[in-house]
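FORM 7B: Structural annotation worksheet

SECTION A. Query
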Amino acid sequence: MPTEQLVGAWISIFLTLCIFSYLYDDNPIYKLAEHLFLGVSIGIAVTEQYWGTIHPNLVERLLGGNFLSLFPLVLVILLFTKPFGPKISWLARIPIAFIVAAYAGVKLTGEANANLMTQVAQSMPNLQQIYAEHGIWSWEADGAGVFSAVFLVVGLAACLLHFYFSAPHSRPMQVVSRFGVLVLMLSFGASFGYTVMGRISLAIGRVQELIGLDKRPEDVAQIQPQTVTLISLAIIIAFLAVWRVQQGRAEDTEAAS
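SECTION B. Predicted structure
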């Protein structure tokens, strides 16, 4: 394994434990890892934007004699006039207007076809085809079947009727509205559970890296992740102990004064 990859694996283990130190308290070593993460993320994003967008679409075109690219360059510069006071800050509205209009013209149709029409089509399932494939209910297909399709349509209609405020809800409408709220709560709960499962999966991945389960045996023998983890834990615990003592002394000094 090259030296830079070896050192990178050690730093990755140390920074992972620094992030986990937030479970104890919001401390400086956690903030160090957080700021490093944000700084590296911003650096990567800026680099990708330059080499993926600015360089091929602006620099190369200007060097090739396509001076029409100066027009978008001027619009980009006008975006930065906002902090310079009301006398020239209005110029930033010009490129913003172009961005909004371009997004509305280019994206609106595509977004409607890709998302809205797809959702409308999926809310009108082909019951005959579903019955031929899965029957009324299929455990092997994660509950697919006619029952799930009908429940989808009825639940969607109940959710939409719950937000119908143009007329007072009568007794039957209140029942439908309550059912719509139940469906909404079930969907929110499922979304929250999926989010939690995703975060747990990320945590499992980090723990596997800490103990070396995500690497080849020869790489584990070279990196020695268990040893690096123990050393990093000792450093972090010692730092947190010193930080806590200093924080307590500062609080005592403020109380005495």
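SECTION C. Observations
The chain has a mean pLDDT of 87. The two ends are 57 Å apart (CA to CA).

SECTION D. Sign-off
Analyst initials: ____
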